[in-house]
Amino acid sequence: MAEVVRMPKMSDTMTEGVLVKWHKNVGDFVKNGELVAEIETDKATMEFESYQEGTLLYRGIEEGKTAPVDSILAILGKAGEDYKPLLEEEQKKSLAAPAEEKKETTAEKPAEAVTAKQPEQKPPEQKPAESKPATSKVATAEIVEASTDSNGRVKASPLAKKLAGEKGIDLSMLKGTGEHGRIVKRDIDWFKPSGFVASQMNLQNAKESFEEIPVSQMRKTIARRLSESKFTAPHFYLTMDIDMDECVKARESINAVAQAKISFNDFVIKAVAASLQQHPAVNSSWLGDRIRVNHHIHIGVAVAVEEGLLVPVVRFADQKTLSQINGEVKTFAQKAKDKKLQPQDWEGNTFTISNLGMFNIEEFTAIINTPDACILAVSAIKQIPVVKNGTVQPGQVMKVTLSCDHRVVDGVTGAKFLNTLKGFLENPVILLGQYSI
């Protein structure tokens, strides 16, 4: 008997998917566990394997098209079997659902509201249209052309005449933009003796144009989740300058001997993990009627891809070395660009870092990545004058901004966390003394 294969829900936030590619054609036999299609979810492009066996009788979605979860993806059955009754039954269900909703809505209304006879309303009396001066765009354009009256006199406001006299402008060279083609002050201000007419001719040839790009599943989810976070969690922000001189020296020393080239982002992840150990309240989540304080440290690292932003998670970051963190982040970044991240790669974060330093951004604020209580925005390291030991010297300074959910983290708690982070990055020997490279 023919069976319906439905669009699967491949992530917790998925509501619809895009059929990227079919791996089976109508008439092909599909085995249990065999690859049937590739589906783009709100996070990545994932392979869909069949849990049923049979000949592919019908493909319900074209490549590149979007369909909601549980809609008909395909129909499997015996070769030559009639599958049309299944499609007709599905169509009846989809038509019956709105009718049932309408019936329930009508039943909820008071009987009086449903049965009351509406009083007849007489159409309003039509009054003869009063003659008004033409105000259409065409009429206005024609009026603007005429800046002189029937006697050949230039129509201009007193102020426009005065300004034209002061600037030596011949009013007959202007086209008025005021009422009935009258020359006003702005016409004098905009007038350019050598280029005014040419600019008007160029504007006549100008055309408005635009391009509309369909919103991808990933961008839809990003928009929904960030809107929920921004408008639900009461954000506040704490910004701090961190002296990175010692961190720059430590990185240079490590990269001189290490096989993997450590980045500043690796230092930040490691320092954040160490700081979260001392401030567990920052490593928490708001769950409505309770606050979850996480004892494990899973740091989400925002990675930019063409269609938006993904946040793969470095798990147990406090227990990993700089080299391990570096390797994981590089792997995640490549998988994100190739759309090969799996659900287990982006789930379970307890804190998030967003670093735009590589784009030369001096300071920014980030929206909290729920369910985290905080996110750290990391900016570029800038060489600026700083005061050390009473003298002005060149220094390497990095700004960081902590976005906090005020329902979970108070200002003092966030400030203490930032000061601990500052201590680790300004004295990386302490950080590296606790953990191996």
Broad shape: flat
Give the integer mean of the pLDDT values. 82
Number of DSSP helical runs: 13
User: Can you count the beta strands?
Assistant: 18
Spatial strand sequence of the major β-sheet: 9-18-17-16-12-15
C-alpha-based Rg, rounded: 33 Å
| Percentage beta strand | 15-25%
Give the uncertain stretches in residue-range form.
109-146
The main sheet comes to: 6 strands, mixed
Q: Class by helix and strand content?
A: alpha+beta
What is the helix content? Answer: 25-40%
Distance between the termini: 61 Å
Task: Walk me through what this model shows.
The structure is a single chain. With 437 residues, the protein is of the alpha+beta class. Helix content is 35%, strand content 23%. It is built from 13 helices and 18 strands. The strands form 5 sheets. It has a 6-stranded mixed beta sheet with strand order 9-18-17-16-12-15. A 4-stranded antiparallel beta sheet has the order 1-8-6-3, with no helix packed on it. Strands 5-4-2-7 form a 4-stranded antiparallel beta sheet, with no helix packed on it. Helix 9 (264-278) packs across helix 10 (322-337), helix 9 (264-278) packs across helix 12 (411-426) and helix 12 packs across helix 13. The longest helix has 25 residues, at 84-108. The chain is flat. The model is unreliable at 109-146 (pLDDT under 50).
In short:
The chain has 437 residues and is of the alpha+beta class.
Keywords for this entry:
18 strands; six-stranded mixed β-sheet; 437 residues; single chain; four-stranded antiparallel β-sheet
